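Run log // design_07
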């Protein structure tokens, strides 16, 4: 029987507040926590820009709060571990980042986030006269078939969606135009994850799901949601082949396409394993005539100490490539 991993904590019920305090200090003055709310905002926001507010449940570090910075999010509303931020947190964060040109909400497509961000948008528009647009990230090909893409959850594709939209929000003057770029980005991102072992919930110490020692689950969600199928552990190449078959067929991606590629650690997977999978993914893309514009291999969207990884492809055109390639500076994702 698998056991939860050991953690260095103080009070398990205060992990989010203490994490945010440490996050702010690690950013050396570039972000600040809102008084009385688990939300952070940039301290260097220009006086006039379209604001980008991201957010969701904690426990997926560095997502979302680690992605606040230059050409990334302008602020992040932070929920408890694996729980959506409350509407009052979202409202407070949105009011703080608003600079007169409206606020775009960008977050993963989960029921609790959808409900609370929608409630916050209604309050902001009716009570504060702040225009809000919403884009939900739906990159997980395992969550629903292509004809129900809007039912899909957001996983590691969140990173590329935030990066592109953050760049657009820095350069474009119109909320409608930033929304257009965000929707275009989301429409061109596809991901799939594989779990080898479970993460745990700090407050309870319980595992998020159970897997036998010799089992893996292809397509498992960030909280332990069921994937495509459960099977015996096999080789890295075989796992990558299964995942890439589904990702490539879904958009679909084809010969002559140019993509950004991300191999994301779900929490406890080694760089060695990710690079071995990256090797196989590149072999597949080369065979299919798909060019990789840039690669990201690292840890961006986790589930505590879950072992496993996800593969993300983002199909690029010149506009998406421009915003993706702008310098990014945040604690969780920086690339010059």
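design_07 sequence
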């Amino acid at each position: 029987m698998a056991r939860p991993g050991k953690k260095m904590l103080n009070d398990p019920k205060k992990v989010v507040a203490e994490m945010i305090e440490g996050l702010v200090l690690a950013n050396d003055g570039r972000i600040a926590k809102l008084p009385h709310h688990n939300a952070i905002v940039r301290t260097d926001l220009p006086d006039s820009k379209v604001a980008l507010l991201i957010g969701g449940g904690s426990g997926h570090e560095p997502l979302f709060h680690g992605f606040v910075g230059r050409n990334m999010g302008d602020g992040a509303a932070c929920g408890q571990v694996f729980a959506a931020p409350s509407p009052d947190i979202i409202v407070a964060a949105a009011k703080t980042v608003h600079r007169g040109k409206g606020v775009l909400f960008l977050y993963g497509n989960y029921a609790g986030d959808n409900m609370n961000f929608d409630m916050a948008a209604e309050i902001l528009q009716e009570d504060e006269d702040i225009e809000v647009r919403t884009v939900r990230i739906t990159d997980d090909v395992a969550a629903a078939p292509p004809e129900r893409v809007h039912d899909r959850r957001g996983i590691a594709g969140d990173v590329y969606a935030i990066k592109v939209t953050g760049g657009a929000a820095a350069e474009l003057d119109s909320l409608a135009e930033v929304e257009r770029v965000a929707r275009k980005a989301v429409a061109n991102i596809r991901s799939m994850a594989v779990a080898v072992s479970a993460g745990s919930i700090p407050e309870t110490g319980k595992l998020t799901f159970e897997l036998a020692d010799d089992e893996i689950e292809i397509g498992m969600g960030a909280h332990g949601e069921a994937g495509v199928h459960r099977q015996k552990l096999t080789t890295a190449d075989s796992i990558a082949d299964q995942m890439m078959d589904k990702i490539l067929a879904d958009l679909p991606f084809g010969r002559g396409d140019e993509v950004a590629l991300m191999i994301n650690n779900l929490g406890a997977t080694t760089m060695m394993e990710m690079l071995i999978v990256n090797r196989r993914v590149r072999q597949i893309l080369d065979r299919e005539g798909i060019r990789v514009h840039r690669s990201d291999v690292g840890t961006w969207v986790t589930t505590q100490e879950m072992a496993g990884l996800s593969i993300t492809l983002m199909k690029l055109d010149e506009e998406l490539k421009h915003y993706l390639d702008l310098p990014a500076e945040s604690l969780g994702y920086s690339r010059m």
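The chain has two domains: 12-187, 189-324.
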